[in-house]
UniProtKB/TrEMBL annotation:
KW Transferase (keyword) present: no
Lineage per the UniProt record: Eukaryota, Metazoa, Chordata, Craniata, Vertebrata
Transmembrane segments: none
WD repeat boundaries on the chain: 1059-1101
Subunit (UniProt): Forms oligomers. Interacts with 6 of the 7 known isoforms of 14-3-3 proteins.
UniProt keyword annotations, A-Z: Cytoplasm, Guanine-nucleotide releasing factor, Phosphoprotein, Repeat, WD repeat
Residue ranges of every copy of the UDENN domain listed in the record: 76-501
Gene that this sequence comes from: DENND3
Region (Disordered): 67-101
Protein name: DENN domain-containing protein 3
GO biological process: regulation of Rab protein signal transduction
GO cellular component: cytoplasmic vesicle
Length: 1273
């Protein structure tokens, strides 16, 4: 028998918060004015509305459950959950319109204001019946939480023989009989929900009204109560593709869900504003919202006010309106528009003139005629949206198909009401999706480059630098938007890494260049490709001039430009690029679950039957799912858990939520589960603890120590420092400024700026340095090369430094430096003279040349491929250019030797910092100070370490997964996944990937076809990651030190599933292909679990004695397990087959096993042992024989080992040229000899993986943090 849920546990609310019946008070109908209606004269004033009845869930309470064995009849005594206005209370009672104490009204619902909102135009008795009408409400509590109301108004005649106000069969004599003839009194039914189900609840109320019109007056309350009870029993659907359907008779009502946890629930027609306003006006209204003006909507249709306002707020997502939102103001509430703060309100059109005269500075939006005006003669300062974004938006809106009739023209007429509604709903869903994408693209084009001016480590936004990158005509818009609460919250979401629609679009829209730039450690400059496409328009020239200004200084005057139309002009389609046409958007597929019928009378037994039907239908739907339908399975778990909870079956609910926890963590209701566990009685808690899955869930969600205090999530605006800085503060300030992130480079900069001084930097020096850096950045933006010059350069080259005009042995001109070469930009007729690539330089000297009585400083560059020496009389710039060229030359040599392009990027950063240091200090010692940044040049001269020939020949490339971080991170695990083309994917999504597990649960993904970053650092838990495997081509399983297995969806790059059955660190994973495929996981305590990949359920479980289980391998149907002091062979069911113990076999050789590799063809077992520099090989034919040792020369520690073809690759630490380095030993498995000894990394080799047996990838420790790619022979 089901347990009743404890009283103190707040059950999850269904769709209904409150249902109320409202109408004119009985006293207001008694007055003398009522008599004049009989003679056809309209009442001069409105009647007083009030709440007549309130219905609040739950409608069946704990007392009812005690009668579960009784027949379904109305219980004789229950706690009252509905309330009727008592007619004998005086009108002056202060509780008028309030329920008794035993009826709890939800927060946010003000019963005193509710009658005015339900009858915003007043209450008038009509002489003839009027058409039913619906309007909508948004109610906000003091904390800003919103609830949503849908109100249906209808008229009922008053009859002599029945009383609507006291529930009795006859009127009392006090009612004047003569007055009742021809009287139609308005009433309203209001449904309040936490969710904005505008269309669904409108349909529900429409169904209710068909019943209310046919029932007698004394039956109205019962009908409304039954209606409210139905809604209260319907659970709200979780985010995702599953919508709920309920039969309300005669309509099938659809309750849609949110698309994902970060998206709002959309149950309205998003194209309504596009029918009411021209696209230019839509943009003006969006600008008013983005700049947080005081806005009032007007319409003669009450329903349009909230609907249109909600549509505009939906267009702004993921930005959120955070100010007062009252879309319906009754005539008694008009003084609200006098509020001095920002708001969004709605009034009837009748009050337009009154509001416009009484209040100043309002934006008045007339929905009926599509106009946008201001309430005062002096225009409110509302800027234009950026022009290019506006043009694209207008054309896309004009391309939308907004009329359903055009979509139906080729179809036959539907003879089924619900079929026609389904067709309309599908059309609306497609259109809503298109409208959302058009609006999102608008916001994306406006705010896309914000991320380039964010410092994520210190949560800083450099607003001044961002503003300088905006076109002059757009400056006013951005200045106003950047000061809003809405934009501040948007910044917080970016810095917190929220994966909302904006972030998903940013990821989707990334170009190859964006991904390449994400790997650069050096500052960005315009590439030759961008320079060639850039047009020298007046707008661009003025833009270039203005970026020279510095932060914290007075605004400069924006150059005069052609005047821009204050109201956005209609854009000719030919003016927009072809890429700005309407987006081709296909809505994601959705599914439905039909809620079972609810039987009446509504007593406990009937409700229990309803819950049982729900559980049965959900269980049936789950059993019919395909194995790979985990998205739907998670939604069914959520719904079934919610129904079990409402049913009072707490343990069953916890089991469903535990299954949900490992199926889709995004929709797991952690707070609800925590409250559920807290409400369990002692015996219930003990029973839950006996179930292993629930014990784990309770420990994960409930019993963990209190969460750490929430970190400061404020966003700071970058400001120049005002006090002296020690090293640590200087590092932080430089990182905040966005100049450099790498901590080691900033340490060198600190040394350069403090040469000969106390080791601290004063604010003036920092300001001078910052200004020098930004001026150089601005000059680089202004560089414009002739096409004849650009033809000689690669498209991705950038000009980083230009000298002043100097005399050279090739003529007069400016020396230009790119990341690849030096060239001379000749004067007069601009021309290109190649000086040298950095690779081709043989010698660089700074000398002097005699000219008359002077000695002119001259730079001489000797090339390897030319006999002629390049000479340039650089005068005062000579010493600086000498430093810079030598640093770039050294960086290029290191990049070539180590196959690592990061060296040239770091050298560029050093060079640009040298330039800024010299410009800052402007003293005789400035060049010496800048020499502190000649890091690679000193490395080349002081430590001329050559890369061994074997290493150089085998090494193909290096990449840096820590690019953009403040310091390098250790590469703990590597996984290569081959590419495969899925029709649902983008082409680049089908490329092979390299997955890199860094410290603290960070994962970076590279596109293995171009070795560019595909996904930069997303989090998988917070602990060290130990292992990764690919399962069924669409999942990556990650084992963590925190004992959880995280499952990453390869397509969405999201981790929504967690397997929590292990009790200690997950140390290895291995895949067994087949149908169904399996994954075996092991943990350090000796537990091995077998998982069905499709269902994510454990199919077998066994424990190895002794623990210390570090790795497993699958061979011939058996698992080979490395347990530290032994290697154990067990069947897939855990039966022991063989065991190799250290004490019996190799006790004199080593203390514990680290890892093993099996070579079935050679019948060999290879194992590495802790603390020894040899690998040991056993014959699989007889494990009792003493192993053969393969000695690794100069090796001090082995850390990882893999098999590639007929080779064993061993990674660890060893000596090279007298220093400890990360080394790789390549062993021929057949001959058992070391073929190659590779000097791989500056730090130990921590991870190895194979890429289709063609390449091996190695990851290093935190001292270097890079990945090397090696060729397999």
């Amino acid at each position: 028998m089901a347990e009743a849920a404890p009283q103190h546990l707040a059950l999850p609310s269904g769709l209904l918060e409150l249902c109320a019946l409202l109408g004119p008070s009985r006293d207001s109908l008694r007055g003398p004015d009522q008599m004049s209606l009989k003679n056809g004269v309209r009442l001069p004033s409105a009647l007083d509305p009030e709440v007549l009845s309130i219905f609040v869930p739950p409608f069946v309470t704990k007392e009812d459950s005690q009668m579960a064995g009784a027949p379904c009849v109305t219980p004789s005594k229950t706690r009252r959950r509905s309330f009727r206005k008592k007619r004998d209370k005086p009108k002056t009672e202060p509780w008028k319109g309030l329920p008794p104490e035993d009826v709890s009204v939800p927060n946010g619902v003000d019963l005193l204001a509710l009658p005015q909102l339900c009858f915003p135009g007043g209450v008038y008795v009509a002489s003839e019946p009027r058409e039913d009408c619906v309007h909508f409400l948004v109610l906000t509590d003091v904390c800003g939480n919103r609830t949503y109301g849908v109100v249906a108004q209808y008229y009922r005649p008053l009859h002599d023989e029945s009383c609507f106000y006291n529930g009795k069969a006859h009127w009392e004599p006090s009612w004047p009989t003569a007055c009742a003839a021809g009287c139609f009194v308005p009433f309203a039914v209001c449904v309040v929900s936490k969710l904005p189900y505008y269309n669904a609840l409108k349909d529900c109320l429409s169904c209710l009204l068909t019943h209310l019109k046919l029932c007698k007056d004394f039956e109205v309350d019962n009908h409304i109560k039954d209606f409210a009870a139905k809604l209260s029993l319907i659970p709200s659907p979780p985010p995702g593709p599953l919508h709920l359907i309920f039969n309300m008779k005669p309509l099938q009502i659809v309750f849609p869900s949110r698309a994902d946890p970060e998206s709002p629930l959309i149950d309205l027609d998003l194209h309504l504003p596009l029918l009411c306003f021209r696209p230019e006006k839509v943009l003006q209204i969006l600008t008013c919202l983005l700049t947080e003006q005081r806005i009032v909507f007007f319409s003669s249709n009450w329903a349009l006010l909230p609907l249109v306002a909600e549509c505009f707020l939906a267009y702004l997502r993921p930005l959120q309106w955070q100010h007062t939102f009252v879309p319906v103001l009754s005539h008694q509430m008009l003084d609200f528009v006098m509020a001095p703060t920002t708001f969004l309100m709605g009034c009837h059109l009748d009050h337009f003139e009154e509001v416009s005269k009484e209040a100043d500075g309002l934006i008045l939006i007339n929905i009926d005629n599509g106009s946008v005006t201001c309430s005062t003669d002096k225009d409110v300062d509302v800027p234009d949206i950026p022009l290019l974004a506006a043009q694209t938006f207008i054309q896309r809106v004009q391309s939308l198909q907004l009329h359903h009739e055009l979509d139906l023209a080729h179809l036959g007429t539907s003879t089924d009401l619900n079929e026609g509604r389904t067709r309309r709903r599908a059309w609306q869903q497609r259109l809503n999706c298109q409208v959302q994408q058009v609006a999102l693209h608008l916001l994306f084009s406006i705010f896309r480059e914000v991320k380039n001016h964010l410092n994520y480590e210190h949560r800083v936004f450099n607003s001044e630098e961002f503003l300088k990158t905006r076109a002059p005509g757009d400056q006013q818009f951005y200045r106003q938007v950047l000061d809003t609460y809405m934009f501040h919250s948007f910044l917080k979401a970016r810095l917190s890494g929220r994966m909302d629609a904006f972030a998903q679009m940013d990821l989707h829209m990334q170009s190859e260049e964006d991904r390449f730039n994400g790997m650069l450690a050096s500052p960005r400059r315009p590439t030759i490709e961008k320079m060639a496409s850039r047009k020298s328009s007046p707008l661009h020239i003025a833009h270039r001039r203005m970026v020279v200004s510095m932060p914290n200084l007075q605004d400069i005057t924006i150059p005069e430009l052609p005047a821009r139309n204050s109201s956005l002009r209609k854009v000719d389609a030919s003016e927009c690029s072809s890429g700005s046409t309407v987006l081709s958007v296909t809505p994601k597929p959705t599914y439905t679950f039909k809620i079972p019928e609810i039987h009446f009378p509504l007593v406990s037994q009937c409700v229990q039957a309803y819950y049982s039907d729900c559980v049965a239908l959900l269980s049936k739907a789950m059993s019919l799912l395909a194995p790979d339908s985990s998205v739907l399975l998670a939604r069914y778990f959520y719904l079934r858990g919610a129904v079990h909870l409402m049913h009072g079956q707490l343990l069953d609910a916890l089991l469903d939520f535990q299954s949900l926890y490992k199926t889709d963590i995004r929709i797991f209701p952690a707070d609800l589960v925590r409250r559920m566990v807290g409400s369990l009685s002692g015996p219930q808690r003990a029973q839950a603890e006996r179930v292993p899955e629930l014990r784990r869930l309770i420990s994960e969600v409930v019993d963990k120590p209190g969460e750490a205090p929430k970190p400061d999530d404020r966003v700071k605006n970058f400001e120049l420092p005002r006090k002296h800085m020690q090293l640590d503060d200087f590092v932080k300030r430089v990182q905040e400024s966005g100049i450099v992130k790498d901590t080691s480079i900033i340490h060198r900069l600190f040394e350069a700026l403090t040469v000969g001084h106390q080791k601290q930097i004063d604010p003036e020096t920092f300001k001078d340095f910052y200004n020098c850096w930004k001026e150089a950045e601005a000059e680089a933006q202004e560089v414009s090369l002739p096409l004849s010059v650009m033809e000689h350069l690669d498209k991705n080259e950038c000009v980083y430094k230009l000298s002043s005009s100097v005399k050279t042995n090739h003529g007069v001109g400016k020396i230009a430096m790119t990341q690849k070469r030096l060239f001379l930009l000749t004067e007069g007729r601009p021309g290109y003279v190649e000086i040298s690539t950095f690779r081709n330089i043989e010698e660089v000297r700074s000398t002097t040349v005699a000219f008359l009585l002077l000695r002119i400083p001259t730079l001489k560059i000797k090339m390897a491929s030319k006999k002629e020496v390049f000479e340039a009389n650089l005068k005062t710039e000579c010493d600086l250019w000498h430093l810079m060229v030598k640093e770039m030359w050294a960086g290029k040599k290191l990049a070539d030797d180590h196959k690592d392009p990061q060296y040239i990027q770091q050298a560029l950063t050093h060079v640009l910092l040298m330039d800024a240091v010299v410009g800052t200090l402007q003293s005789s010692g400035a060049v010496y100070a800048a020499s502190k940044l000649s890091y690679f040049d000193k490395m080349k001269s002081e430590m001329p370490l050559t890369v061994p020939k074997t290493t150089s020949e085998t090494l193909k490339h290096r990449i840096n997964p820590s690019a953009g971080e403040t310091f390098p991170h250790a590469v703990d695990v590597l996984l290569y996944t081959p590419g495969h083309l899925d029709p649902a994917e983008k082409v680049e999504d089908a490329h092979p990937k390299l997955w890199c597990a860094l410290n603290e649960g960070k994962v970076t993904v590279f596109d293995a076809s171009s070795w560019t970053i595909y996904q930069h650092c997303f989090k998988v838990g917070t602990s060290k990651l130990n292992c990764m495997v690919m399962a069924e081509q669409n999942q990556v399983w990650v084992g963590s030190e925190d004992s959880v297995i995280y499952i990453i969806n390869i397509h969405s790059m999201s981790c929504n599933k967690q397997l929590t059955d292990h009790r200690s660190s997950v140390t290895d994973l291995v895949v067994q292909n087949g149908t169904p495929s399996k994954v075996y996981s092991c943990s350090r305590d000796g537990t091995i679990l077998a998982w069905n990949v499709s269902t994510l359920r454990v199919t077998s479980r066994f424990q190895l004695p002794g623990g210390r289980l570090s790795s497993i391998s699958l061979h011939d149907g058996c698992l080979w397990c490395c347990t530290g002091n032994s290697i154990v062979v067990v069947t897939s069911n855990g039966l022991l087959c063989q065991e190799l113990k250290i004490s019996e076999n190799v006790g004199d050789i080593c203390t514990s096993f680290l890892s093993l590799q099996l070579l079935p063809e050679q019948e060999q077992l290879w194992a590495a042992c802790a603390g020894f520099n040899s690998i040991y090989v056993w014959s699989l034919k007889d494990l009792t024989q003493r192993p053969q040792a393969v000695h690794l020369q100069d090796c001090s520690e082995v850390s990882c080992m893999i098999t590639v073809k007929q080779q064993i690759w061993v990674g660890g630490t060893g000596l090279s040229q007298g220093k400890s380095k990360g080394k790789i030993y390549v062993i021929d498995a057949e001959r058992k000899t070391v073929e190659k000894e590779l000097v791989a990394h500056m730090d130990t080799v921590k991870a190895l993986c194979s890429a289709e047996d063609r390449y091996v990838l190695s990851g290093s420790g935190g001292g270097e943090g890079k990945i090397a790619i090696w060729k397999v022979e």
